[in-house]
Amino acid sequence: MTGAPPVGQDGPVVDAVVFDLDGVIVDSEPVWEEVRRAYVAAHGGTWQPDTQRRLMGMSTGEWAHYLSGELGVDRTARQVADEVVEEMTRRYREHVPLIDHADRVVRRLAGRWPLGLASSSPTRLIAAALAATGLTDAFATTLSTEETERGKPAPDVYLAVARHLGVDPSRCAAVEDSSNGVRSAAAAGMRVVAVPHGAYPLDPDAAGLAAVTLGRIGELTPETIDELAG
């Protein structure tokens, strides 16, 4: 992480908590993989063994260019983004797969800290997911990487969310599931609670950046955050 967290009389301070969305609150990574795999196959591209891992954390523009360019999809990046996101929106209208009562976890933490959301999903999918899970009002600010210069693992989205919250990044805790997400939050100077998805374990370097690693989101409590500040 960049620098040391500020220390008060009782130790380091946590003034806000920033959540990722995909893989933390909603189990959307398998849906993203299914939709994009099918799209690549339908449009003349070739899915690679490391494609899903590379895609996790990319902004909309980044993954659309990756599918159109490196994977050989016979559509422009703009067409790729529009058509894949349209299919994801359709899937969300049918069902948003909430993870392990994550909505209760978010509500519990919202009772103690202002919350931010730093997501690689497009803005309209963030809105759809939060509306479907009843969490729209739980977050003081939400931001998509499509609104920042770079996606994860760059720190841009976490730095921007901290700025919108009016909190120094070093006084924020971040909740992430993916290697690129953990790298992004750590690069922003946040203390990271990692909750890896069972199908997508953390790379060793990313695991080493986490202040704490949980087996499931239901284990995240206000006490977990307090321990980060102790």
Short recap of the structure:
This protein has 230 residues and is of the alpha/beta class. The protein has helices at residues 29-42, 51-55, 60-68, 77-94, 102-110, 123-133, 156-165, 179-187, 204-207, 222-228, and strands at residues 7-8, 11-12, 16-19, 115-119, 141-144, 172-176, 191-194, 212-213. 42% of the residues lie in helices and 12% in strands.
The largest pleated sheet is described as: 6 strands, parallel
What is the assembly state of the chains in this entry?
single chain
Mean pLDDT: 92
Number of helices: 10
- The helicity comes to 40-55%
Which regions contain 5 or more consecutive residues with pLDDT less than 50? 1-11
- Order of strands side by side in the largest beta sheet? 5-4-3-6-7-8
Q: How many extended strands?
A: 8
What is the overall shape? globular
Order of helices and strands: EEEHHHHHEHEHEHEHEH
- Give the class from helix and strand content and strand pairing: alpha/beta
- Radius of gyration from CA coordinates: 17 Å
End-to-end C-alpha gap = 17 Å
Q: Which percent range describes the beta-strand content? A: 5-15%
